[in-house]
Amino acid sequence: MTDLNFIPSSADDAALRGLLCGGFFDRLKRRLSVQKISLPFCVKSHIISPVKKRGTCLVKTHCFRLRRGADLLTSLEDYSKTQHLKAASVVCAVGCVSAAVVRDASGVNIRALCEPLEIVSLMGTLSEARTHLHISFSREDLSTVGGHLREGCIVNTTAEIVLLELDGVRFDAEYDEDTGYDELVILEDTP
């Protein structure tokens, strides 16, 4: 198993380097190939793929920064579709929003927060077929609020995102009568 604490190392990646501990990067960077991509909602994006060892892909990491005005959820969904992500998880997300929209735990109530908020946590699963993300924000008084990420979380200055693409599985959705929602289905991904 490879440590997940790495991102590309170059002078113009200094902002992204702060996202994750770099202690293991020096050891791993020789085994990585980095592909730069350009998307309309990103300042810069990198896809990091380790060299295959004995026919097994260790990890694949996606790093990008969203621009001011981007909708956080829509941008993540668009990225998943553009990159044809079959199964991924948010490793890290930091930044701030000028407004936010979240659904609470009831699954019914949607709350709009019209204030500047710091992103302190974003986690969940995503693929080109489905997205399920939870987010926490810090207010100016340092209290926290969070819930199920909805459209309307608008990036203020930046949102730095690191995704881990999972090898060998595919996330899909299937309606679950018990919950009333389309729920995660994990399928084996065959090449």
UniProtKB/TrEMBL annotation:
Pfam families, A to Z: PCC
Boundaries of every PPC domain copy: 55-187
Entry keyword DNA-binding: yes
InterPro entries assigned to the protein according to its UniProt record, in alphabetical order: PPC_dom
GO molecular function: DNA binding
Keywords, sorted A to Z: DNA-binding
PROSITE patterns: PPC (PS51742)
Cross-referenced PANTHER family: DNA-BINDING PROTEIN, PROTEIN, PUTATIVE-RELATED
Protein name per UniProt: DNA-binding protein
Species in which this protein is naturally found: Lawsonibacter faecis
